[in-house]
Amino acid sequence: MRTQRPALPAAVPAAVLAALLALAGTTACGAQDGAPRPVHSGTVDGKPSPEPPADAPLTDTEWTVTALAQGGTASAVPADATGKARFTITHDGSVSGGLGCNRFTARATVVGASLGFGPLATTRMACTGPAGEVERALTTLFARGPLGWKVEGRTLTLTGGADGADAGAAGAAGLTAEAASAAE
User: Which InterPro entries match (predicted)?
Assistant: First the structure.
């Protein structure tokens, strides 16, 4: 006596499969309108998607000033001063670095999104040209009083305005700095 096996489902014809995929708005390879789309969470076209960079910590990071803002207008640090304005705020509240020409040290106070610098102790070299201009701008900014701070990825933004105004207001000032890479 023969035993009957249950019938296997018939193969889905290619035309029916294509129609179902068209109704779902995708193609068999997962593309929609020819553009890559996530196949499942964390992948694009079946490959792991890169993780967004983690925010660098405010403290214990060496920050290199890349741009200065005054009156709502930001401009890059002049080429002759690039890389000379750097600072590090330690976890215990001391801050030190270079202002563009002279070295400095001070105390820093972080309260929420506010960062204040105490009086700066600096070396006393005569600074002219672009490095001197950057130094004067940073010395003025750090003396303004509490600054707003924000870190996004490896970029630090400090903003402070006249009488607490935002960075876009007349008289407002600020800076943008990049975290030093592990190779530096």
Answer: DUF306_Meta_HslJ, HslJ-like_sf, Hsp_HslJ-like
The answer to whether the CB of 159 falls within 8 A of the CB of 166 is yes
Q: How many Cα atoms occupy the beta-carbon half-sphere of 105 within 13 Å?
A: 3
> Which one-letter amino acid corresponds to residue 53?
P
**Domain tally for the chain?**
2
Q: pTM to 2 decimals?
A: 0.67
**How confident is the prediction along the chain (184 residues), in pLDDT tens digits per residue?**
554 544 444 444 444 444 444 444 444 444 445 544 443 344 455 666 566 668 999 999 999 999 999 887 899 999 999 999 999 999 999 999 999 999 999 999 999 999 999 999 999 999 999 999 999 999 999 999 899 999 999 999 999 854 444 444 555 789 999 998 644 4
5 is a domain residue: no
Would you call 141 helix, strand, or coil by DSSP? helix
In sequence order, what are the residues at sequence separation of 6 or more whose Cβ sits closer than 8 angstroms to the Cβ of residue 109?
93, 115, 116, 118
